[in-house]
Design a protein that fits this description.
This protein has 737 residues and is α+β, with helices and mostly antiparallel strands. Among the domains are: 8-203, Neurolysin, domain 3 (Orthogonal Bundle), CATH 1.10.1370; 232-295, no CATH class; 342-404 and 596-664, no CATH class. It has 29 helices and seven strands. Strands 3-4-5-7-6 form a five-stranded mixed β-sheet. Strands 1-2 form a two-stranded antiparallel sheet. Its cofactor is Zn(2+). Residues 22-45 are annotated as: Disordered. Its EC number is 3.4.24.70.
Length: 737
């Protein structure tokens, strides 16, 4: 189980932020070289002493061994981390001091084997940070983050180790290696060179010190946001429920009861609660309160305010990349991404931005007309559409213009049926079969978590396990994300995949189905796309299971398209009470309204993406985050009725770690690929289930992971580069030649 030496320090300082952004969206495969494979340690490493700490122990039981989530104790975490670091340093020293000349096998491959013990510990760390956080864990997280950063600096700045890696990188041997091995060498070398290995003396020390400081700040930022999410709950009385769907009311009652407020209705400070409340509540004053509470996370002027932390983070990142010779942080970050540089990323976003804000203007006009009519009928003073009105009146426009009621659609979106639909799609495209494991046979960290075995439908070959943790609860971070506890490799014995999806659906009343919105259903499919990306891996080496950030969202975004296929609709989108499939008339309305509210969705996303990139291309010396946000958005002509999807003080994607920093643009970069690839299926004889296109999809875009350059992989699938025109068509925006 390989621990990545260049990015784990960032990983442990965050709460695995990332793909929780679809629409709120992590994959915890945070950066390009995540290596979670269960392998043996380097043969030359120091012997491992008898261990009693469960977190360090090899996984036992069925399915090649599984994490002992049911027995893990938080009190073991800190000593396990310390022991795991010592063991990995011993392994690394053995590689660095090998008297034999450096070769691919004795240097690069041995590094791939190193770190299995510490990686097991990080699996448990990830659960405590993302799924089961507590004040006790956060204290450990705060204490250990700088120690872990210092530990990884010892490896990335190990001069003897880097000298061996560099020698292999520049050797004639590389020319004789397979393409995937050559890419492994290149990624390993760049992982060192781009993270301070080439620095000397004071510059190298300062680089390591900055990483330690950032680890502390990232951790504090994420804990501040989590505090505001947990601490602000709005309790409603029965007379304040006007407009809210019955399913949401029941879920809110259950949420209140779980917090000791039986008879009340809890609106929690998470997107999964905020979004439906703002969509349906007739209580405008309450909508404003919920909106402000949600969008002011980390920005309340108290001890949990993140603005000062943001300034410090930006300054430290800027100083660090200047040590490496870069003009700004974004240049360093994008150098190994598909975009290559900030200009290319800006070019794409600026091509879409004018159409997005123009569409917002049209959407607001439609909403204002309905609001004016409503106020006239109620004989009340007219209002002007504000941000907390957008979702509410957009829903009324949807009903008026498309005769489409979101709550009516919701009755056909049962969580369990959606899961079955995802299995169906995986069976048709990937030939996977999902079979529930017997309760108790695989340890889980919470009773809500269920596990399925994944096998090949034809051969019966075991592929791995899929864990699902679907429901919101206290201590669990908001949003949705995917992660892997173990990834496929074959270089040191074949390893199966342990993949996990995590969501924050509101648990329904006992015995009743969980109904979700269309956006949430898309998110469910999206995150499952990340799981399929992991499960379909055919790579040999752990490093190659990583990914390029502005590419890794592509596969998951693409999977959303199967939700609206006829096969899924007819079999799985059935009414919660009658069991009848969604009527063709309703399906037609959904498809007709496919680009509805696209101005809002695109604008709120692009605003966050552009602020991210601008923050990381601006000299941060005297930056005031709130002021920068306000003035920059004004300069972009940001519509006043829309706010950034993630305001800067709670923008965890970029400030709880570095997985998406200067890279939030990656979603729309990947969306260009998504739209273009979707047209390949639409044009095929078999449509979205065309066997030939599906095989190319799996062979070239899923199974190779990061063993092939993403641009080359996409060309192998499509026969050409992706075209932005497909994205514009998808969103109903004008296509300019």
């Amino acid at each position: 189980m390989k621990t990545n030496i260049t990015i784990i320090a960032s990983l442990v300082a965050t709460i695995l932020v990332g793909c929780g952004d679809k629409p709120d969206t992590n994959t915890p495969e945070q950066q390009s070289q995540s290596k979670p494979a269960n392998t043996e340690t380097a043969a030359t490493a120091a012997p491992v002493k008898e261990e009693s700490n469960l977190l360090l122990q090899e996984w036992t039981g069925p399915y090649q061994g599984v994490p002992a989530f049911d027995k893990a104790k938080l009190e073991d975490l800190k000593p396990a981390l310390k022991e795991g670091m010592q063991r990995q340093l011993a392994e690394i020293e053995a590689i660095a001091n090998n008297p034999e000349a450096p070769t691919f096998e004795n240097t690069i491959v041995e590094m791939e084997k190193a770190g299995q013990d510490l990686s097991r510990v990080f699996t448990y760390w990830g659960i405590w940070s993302s799924n089961m956080s507590s004040p006790e864990f956060r204290a450990i997280q705060q204490e250990m983050a700088p120690e872990l950063s210092a530990f990884f600096s010892k490896i990335s700045q190990n001069a003897k180790l880097f000298a061996r890696v560099e020698a292999v990188y520049k050797s004639d041997e590389v020319k004789q290696l397979r393409p995937d091995q050559q890419r492994l060498v290149e990624l390993t070398y760049n992982g060192f060179a781009r993270n301070g290995a080439t620095l000397k003396g004071d510059a190298q020390k300062r680089y390591a010190d900055i990483n330690q400081e950032l680890a502390k700040l990232h951790t504090q930022f994420s804990n501040n946001v989590l505090h505001d999410e947990e601490s602000y709950v709005l309790y409603l009385d029965e007379n304040q429920l006007s407009g809210l769907p019955d399913s949401f009311v029941k879920a809110s009652a259950a949420a209140a009861e779980s917090r000791g407020q039986a008879g009340k209705y809890a609106i929690t400070n998470t997107r999964s609660s905020m979004d439906p409340f703002l969509t349906y509540s007739d209580e405008r004053a309450l909508r404003e309160k919920v909106w402000k509470t949600y969008y002011n996370r980390g920005d309340n002027g108290d001890e949990y305010d993140n603005n000062a932390l943001i300034s410090q983070i930006l300054k430290l990142r800027h100083e660090r990349v200047q040590l490496l010779g870069y003009e700004n942080y974004a240049q360093w970050r994008l150098e190994d991404r598909m975009a290559k540089n900030p200009d290319n990323a800006f070019k794409l976003m600026k091509a879409v931005w004018p159409a997005a804000i123009a569409r917002v203007k049209e959407e607001v006009a439609d909403m204002q007309a309905i609001a004016d009519k409503q106020m006239t009928e109620l004989k009340q003073e007219k209002i002007t559409i504000e941000p907390w009105d957008y979702r509410y009146y957009a829903e009324k426009v949807r009903k008026d213009k498309y005769d489409l009621d979101s709550d009516e659609v919701k009755q056909y979106l049962q969580l369990d049926k959606l899961r079955e639909a995802m299995f169906y799609v995986a069976g048709r495209l990937f030939n996977f079969e999902f079979t529930p494991v017997k309760d108790g046979s695989v340890p889980v960290f919470h009773p809500d978590v269920k596990v399925w075995e994944v096998t090949d439908k034809t051969s019966g070959e075991h592929i791995g396990l899929w864990y699902l943790d679907p429901f919101a609860r206290q201590g669990k971070r908001s949003g949705a994300w995917a992660t892997s506890y173990r990834s496929h490799t074959t270089f040191d014995g074949k390893e199966n995949v342990l993949s996990s999806n995590n969501s924050n659906f509101i648990k329904g009343a006992p015995g009743e189905p969980v109904l979700v919105s269309w956006d949430d259903a898309e998110t469910f499919f999206h995150e499952f796309g990340h799981a399929l990306h992991s499960l379909s891996s055919k790579v040999v080496y752990p490093t190659l299971n990583g990914g390029v950030r502005d590419y890794t969202e592509f596969q998951s975004q693409l999977l959303e398209r199967w939700l609206l296929t006829d096969e899924v609709i007819s079999q799985f989108l059935v009414h919660a009470e009658t069991g009848k499939p969604m009527p063709t008339e309703l399906v037609a309305k959904i498809k007709n309204a496919a680009t509805f509210n696209e101005g809002f969705k695109t604008t709120e996303y692009l605003a966050s993406a552009m602020i991210d990139l601008l923050l990381h291309t601006t000299n941060p010396e005297n930056i005031d985050p709130d002021k920068f946000e306000r003035e920059t958005l004004a300069g972009l002509n940001m519509p006043k009725e829309v706010v950034m999807r993630h305001r800067t003080p709670h923008f965890g994607h970029i400030f709880s770690g570095e997985g998406y920093s200067a890279g939030y643009y990656g979603y729309i970069w990947a969306e260009v690929l998504t739209s273009d690839a979707a047209e390949a299926f639409a044009e095929a004889p078999g449509g979205f289930y065309d066997e030939k296109v599906a095989k190319k999809l799996v062979d070239h875009l899923f199974s190779v992971r990061n063993a092939v350059d993403p641009a080359d992989a996409y060309r192998a699938f499509r026969g050409r580069d992706a075209k932005v025109e497909a994205l514009m068509r998808d969103r109903g925006f004008p296509v300019t030649q």
